[in-house]
């Protein structure tokens, strides 16, 4: 076999591995795997925000299925046997969330696939974290809550803290516990505001890119910090507004991060008083 042919095979295998681990992370974060009398071979659903239509179209091209706009965003659904079997074989051995492993175990039995267990530790040499972030993460600029009115924040939300604690060991950040049961479905949030930690995440995403609409903002992280350095020397609102247009800033950014960053601000004030 020629060297070029070998490189092509290795690249193809590497790209497939990246895809498989990314898709498993996405399913772990916001997917649902079902088996019922109606869906004999099973059904897989994933829900994202409406702007992630292209992300779902790429999944649809690979496995079939349908993409539909719904009240809370956009939904991908797969229920035909051939597509299900192909998808199950791709994500097999990459899923990590216990409830998702339980769900996929039943589907694998039905489709005569031997279930593989994942590695014990979440690692930085695959795209699982990228897929997980695409499902439940957010990257926002908050302009109202903190003393720094142009604060970049990256957030991972989850119902439990198990995965978040592992991500905290890898990248740093702080965990916020939402005690307001009426404010949403997520109880825990791992958030990053420190430049050094966000740049660590940025380096990871350069190797394993987000495949959702969030990638547009991730690609602007380095530009954001360059601009912050310039604005500390000379205030230039026009330059900042131009960047916000690239960022596609929305007031919903403030809503997403408001409660969390208020808690951060309160914590900083409390530490300041205690140190006096």
TrEMBL record:
Keywords: Endonuclease, Hydrolase, Mitochondrion, Nuclease
Keyword Nuclease: yes
Source organism: Dictyostelium citrinum
Family the entry assigns: Belongs to the LAGLIDADG endonuclease family.
Taxonomy, superkingdom: Eukaryota
Sequence ranges assigned to domain Homing endonuclease LAGLIDADG in this UniProt record: 129-224
GO molecular function term, any single one: endonuclease activity
The protein, known as: Endonuclease ai2c
Keyword Hydrolase included in the entry's annotation: yes
One Pfam match: LAGLIDADG_1
